[in-house]
Write a structure and sequence with these properties.
12 strands, about 15% strand, 5-stranded antiparallel beta sheet, elongated, 4-stranded mixed beta sheet
Length: about 425
């Protein structure tokens, strides 16, 4: 090395520092890549993405290669810097060279390239793969030897580097991904995706039409009354029953009734023959499961039953879809907003039969939904008895005033969200 000019040594040192910067940026860029975008590009046939994916399939080999290359060039740079220091400053030049090289490597070969790679991983990792692939082939014996030792050490603590499951996301993590998508996904689409993820946490009981609100026809009524009810039916499918809804006969499609009417065959007997079998589902069935069952059974409507087989309500495919995309404008059911009335003072009048989940969703409130499903049930559970009018209480931080009661239920209440106070945790006084 004594025969090499000092200027040449400076050039060699610069090249070595550049190589160190390359290996440092490659490591950070490869590890900072969005794995899901990479998989997408790979599936689209992106050749560079495919090459990068193959390198990342064995992260132990990739990291081993990069670190071998980085350490080799850093050690070589240290040797060259020492020679330069001795030539320029004598023995004290060793200390000067050590300090100067450390500063240069930190700034130009570590911090700066790694920061750049972390900010723009694709712009760094994709071009780097063109060189890393052949380097892996050339240095494979060294990489294999180093990986053999490191994998052996990892095996002692029961870790297999080839069994990585770091790319799997939980439902909660998926929600975070959707939230962080920002402007990449329209707000309406974000809400739909989040609603789909929530389907497993929502049961048939949460969205069903309660038993007392089911529109049904007693087949034992006078035939003229039955005809009138069918004529003015708001739904395409109507439930028929005998005396009580517990003795349900089945659903009849209004289209079938009209066909019988057109053929002058419209009678109780023909109507009963047109009845379709009832599909029953437990009240605890998650919505995503219920949707799959509807699809498999080619059903659009069913009755919800409890653990004793008693009918609790009615659920339709439309109800499930509304959980995902929101209310349909063609919905013939009573408008939700008729059950609430915003007052000028900021309070809200709420009907006692209002579903709590719907109320929370529409008003952005946080009443508990684990227990009772209606406002009436929530207050009764809180008090333990049917109260008198003008009684006030606080539920989940919201002041609630009871306005009207009947003998067996609370008819209407006033909620004052402007005086909401966040409730203390249960373990606090």
């Amino acid at each position: 090395m004594d025969s090499i000019a000092t200027s040449t040594l400076f050039i060699i040192l610069g090249v070595l520092v550049f190589c160190s910067a390359y290996f440092s940026s490659s490591e950070t860029g490869m590890m900072s890549l969005n794995r899901y975008r990479l998989k997408h590009l790979n599936n689209e046939g992106h050749r560079t993405a495919r090459r990068v994916q193959k390198l990342l399939d064995r992260p132990d080999r990739l990291i081993g290669l990069i670190l071998i290359g980085n350490n080799l060039v850093n050690i070589a740079a240290s040797a060259v810097a020492t020679v330069i220091g001795l030539r320029l400053f004598g023995d004290v030049g060793i200390a000067i060279a050590t300090f100067a090289l450390t500063l240069v490597i930190l700034v130009f070969a570590e911090v700066t390239p790694k920061t750049l790679a972390a900010l723009y991983p694709e712009k760094i990792a994709f071009p780097s793969s063109y060189l890393l692939k052949p380097l892996l082939v050339i240095l494979f014996p060294f990489v294999w030897a180093v990986n053999g030792v490191t994998n052996g050490l990892l095996a002692l603590i029961k870790i297999n580097p080839t069994d990585s499951k770091g790319d799997e996301l939980s439902p909660e993590e998926l929600r975070t991904v959707v939230f962080e998508a920002g402007n990449l996904i329209p707000k309406k689409h974000q809400d739909m995706l989040l609603s789909v993820l929530e389907l497993e946490n929502v049961s048939a009981e949460d969205i069903m039409v309660p038993r007392n609100e089911i529109v049904a026809i007693d087949i034992n009524d006078e035939w003229k009354d039955i005809q009138k009810q069918l004529t003015y039916a708001q739904h395409t499918r109507v439930l028929l029953y005998r005396d009580t809804i517990d003795d349900a006969v089945g659903f009849v499609h209004v289209r079938d009734a009209l066909r019988l009417l057109s053929k002058d065959q419209f009678s109780k007997a023909s109507l009963l023959r047109a009845v379709r079998e009832i599909y029953y589902t437990p009240d605890s069935t998650p919505l995503h499961t219920l949707m799959y069952k509807f699809q498999a059974e080619r059903e659009r409507i069913g009755l919800v039953v409890d653990e004793y087989g008693d009918i609790q309500g009615l659920v339709t495919l439309e109800d499930i879809l509304e959980e995902i995309i929101g209310d349909f404008t063609t919905n013939m059911m009573p408008d939700y907003h008729k059950q609430t009335n915003q007052q000028q003072d900021g309070s809200v009048l709420v009907d006692g039969s209002t579903n709590i989940r719907d109320l929370n969703k529409e008003m952005n409130w946080f009443f508990p939904i684990a227990g009772p499903k209606t406002m009436n049930g929530l207050i009764l559970e809180e008090l333990g008895e049917i109260p008198e009018n003008n009684i006030s209480l606080r539920i989940a931080g919201y002041p609630v005033e009871i306005l009207e009661c009947s003998e067996n239920m609370i008819e209407s209440v006033r909620v004052m969200p402007q005086f909401y106070v966040s409730p203390l945790p249960e373990d606090e006084d």
